[in-house]
Give the backbone structure.
Amino acid sequence: MLMHKSLLAGFFTACYFVLSAQTPGYLGKKLSVQAEINSFFTRKGPTANNNGENGWYSDQETPGAIGMNWRAGLSVGYVISRRHQLYVSGDYLRTGIIHYAYAPYQIPFSDPELAEYSVFHEASGYSGAIGVRFFKTQAGALAPMGFYNGLALQATRLNANITRKALQSGEVSATPFGIENASALSLAANYEIGSNIIIRDKVLLTLGARLNIPLRLRKLDLFDESSAEVTGDYLADNKTLFERAAITRMAYLSVFSIHVGVGLLAH
Amino acid sequence: MTQPAFTIFIMKTIFILALMLGFTSVFAQNFDNYTPLTCSGKIPDEFTTPSTKKYKSEIKKLEKNKIKKRERREREQFALESSFVIDDLLQSGLVLFGDPISAYLNEVAARVVAADPSFKKKVSIYALRSTAVNAFATDRGTIFVTLGLLAQLENEAQLAYILSHEMTHVQEGHALNLFLEAKEIRRNADKVAVYGKSKFDEKLLSKNRYSKQLESEADNKGLERFLRTGYTTDDLASVFDVLEYAYLPFDEIVFERNFFESGTYHLPDDYWLKDVAAIGSYRQQQDSLKSTHPDVSKRREEMVSRLKQSAKSGGTKFLVSEERFNQARKMARFELPDMFLHKSLTAEAIYIAHLLLQEYPDNAYLQKCVAKALYLQAKYKNDRDYTLRSSWAETEGESQRVQFIMDTISARENTVLGLRYAWQQHLRHPDDKELTAMTKDLFVELGQYSASLSDFSENAVTAAPAEQPEKEEKEVKKTEKKRSKYDKIKETRKKTETETNGWRTAFEDFKHSDDFKTAFDEGQKIYAKNKQHADYLASKKGVAETRKRLRDISKHGYRLGVNKVLVVNPFYLKLDARKENAIQYIQSESGQVRLSDIIGDVAKKAELKITQLDVAALNEGQADKFNDIRVLNEWFSEQLAYDKLPVTQGVNQAQVNAVADKYGVDHVLYTGVISLREKKKGAIFSFALGVLYPPLLPLAIYSAARPDYDMLYYAVVFNVKEGTFQTIKYDYFNLRDSDTLLKSHYYDTFLQIKAKPAKR
């Protein structure tokens, strides 16, 4: 609901600017298309390709290592006034998620017990964002060129597959976790500072840094991704744990990212 | 002789021949209908040849010399700086070419170097539009003689001596020697000052001592050269009188009160100085130690002594022609009022015009100069934001009377006097648009003092609006204690001003004419409308509207609705604060070409019609455009001096309008860029931050490696016919002036110029 309202507000704001403002663009060119890469560094935690030297990730195995998650995609920007550029972007991303999961195992002559596993997901997904960049005209910028601050709303759908699991307690279980092909939706507002550089009147190069603020705070636990209360309904618990781990992972790893884009001033 | 040199020689010869053939017609200036001097014929090469080319040519010459590395470096620096500084002057519009005065100066110069034809090729003489009494030479052989100097001279022999003196500077390479010596003095002073601060004065004095040596050498060798000419040495020493009294006008004629008075109008006694200061009574005693020239009396004595030793006798005061000298000098004198007006020196302009009006009492040009001076002074006085500096006490001779009037006259009396004078001229020259516009504006100015023509009667008792509103008695008592002695003196002076009422009888001669009544009523209407508008803007509603307008401008930019502009001399300057000589001359010149190209390209994209006028881009056949640039530049510098003063008529408004009409525009764009590279600050801090927090490392490296640039960009659009302007951009950015940045801003500027104003 919040997202819907924000999107509508953004849309109407954009319409207001388009209709009322004088828009020079860059030599009249207002539309730009860019290929983008966002890299989000991490000093710990799994990435899509880093789940540990021995086939399993742990802090001890890669002490101080800097992992890198990334997302890449396209963005389309449109100058709506001398100071504003509206943009939409779509990304593909990959990362790794690790959390505890439970599966029942049978002990003869007694009730089933829950085995506790560490599970590793290779996750990938798509994200979409809509945002506005505010160009600092007092610092010499004129949209789409120069220094800017940006605000955007971003939605990411992560799809994850369990590729490894390790028994932590209990006995080996053959029962599925119920999250073998799970997905989670992450929402974030992001604040960006950056600079658009135009090369030879055509090529638009963007360098920026983004701060992502997660919006689904109730699903978030930055300090212990597996601290969800276990209810005993292992399927529901696993889903909760996965969702929390996925959203936290996204928030934790993309809280700060470096952004590079290269593209053309199309029209 | 090489092929290019030969071509230049031929071209110069043709040029000089053309001048010689042409001067008789050009020279026949009709002083009854005087028109200010302009350049004509072909633009000399040295005006349009890029400074970089000249600099490189100097460098090539240096390569042939075997000199020490340091001296070579300093000579290169001199070549660089002198090439660009001289070219700046040549392209400023202040230097005349193809005009009768420059032609005459060159002819006299030819007589001076008749015995040395090879040297003759090295020098070229130009008249310089300046009121200063001066002549100076550059190392590359260009000699400038100011019109102010020519106006003061008594005969051709004096001019010949001055040229001889300047030629010595050229021949001996004095400018270079002084530059090298200044460097040496600085180096030595720095060495001495290792354990303490060297005093600026000491360096200056050392430099001036050397400069005086060079001047003495120029005096002596110049005299030797002069003695080889056919000019007489009789009264030659009086050339130093010209220098000694250079601060006075070219003549001393009693300024009569009736210059402003006629019919029933009498200039109030308060504004009339009964006795004037004697010549020499105030003259500022210059600290001769700090002067670059030796004391004038010593120079005179030295010359007299040398003349006694010389065996020279005979000769004439005029080798070219006495008539030509008188004509050239008269032209120089006629130019003075106009030049003084451009500097807002109104009293000087009036006094010079008064001197010339003795011989040409009905000269329309001179009368208009007086009208302009009174008009301009009234505008300054009526504007509460301006405080004019009083200088009558520092003036000597008859011109002091005029200076006293202009300094002490009240704003109302000045407005009335200006209108009266301008109206008289308007009646004589009803078709003169400048006079019409001036009178119209003065009628509007009059609105703040008089609401009815009935005020203008000796017996009038109507309460014409006072210049300062009277305060309530209580308020006066209350503030009395707070006022200082100086406030009270000022108050007394103010009262005296308001009590003088010469203005009441100023319009007796024409106040009953229908034209005058109509013009008066029209002025009242415009004044009332302006006042109403000003009151509205000061009201709450007006303030709110102003805020709304400013918000609108911030969002949309200005919307002038102008389809065509004239872009005059786009300005580009490159500075590098990391270097000892911050001005990057070569990059500045190439940057100027780049800027012109960008402006041209972007205007096409923005579909704004522009015509660019740039001296550097002119070819030899475009002297008319050179004149146009001069007229517009003069107008522009005048407007800068007026600042916010709403002067609708420039000093040469008719010329400005003619130039605007020629290019089919009302609007002129003055624009430029100053780019500065600074010393890098904070690089270590950025890098340290990146090391402490690795995710920031790429940004930290970028920040540490990125050079620090600053850039000033301005674009001001003037409506030259209405005297209004709009500053579209005056921005200071911490950015490098990349092509794309400039294009982006010029595109925005041009859109703002072109965009249709919003409907209200």
Chain A touches chain B at residues 20-22, 24, 26-28, 41, 66, 81-82, 138-140, 142, 145-146, 197-201, 207, 209, 256, 258 (CB under 8 Å). The helical segments of chain A are 2-20, 234-253. The longest strand of chain A covers residues 146-169. The CA atoms of residues 62 and 75 of chain A lie 34 Å apart.
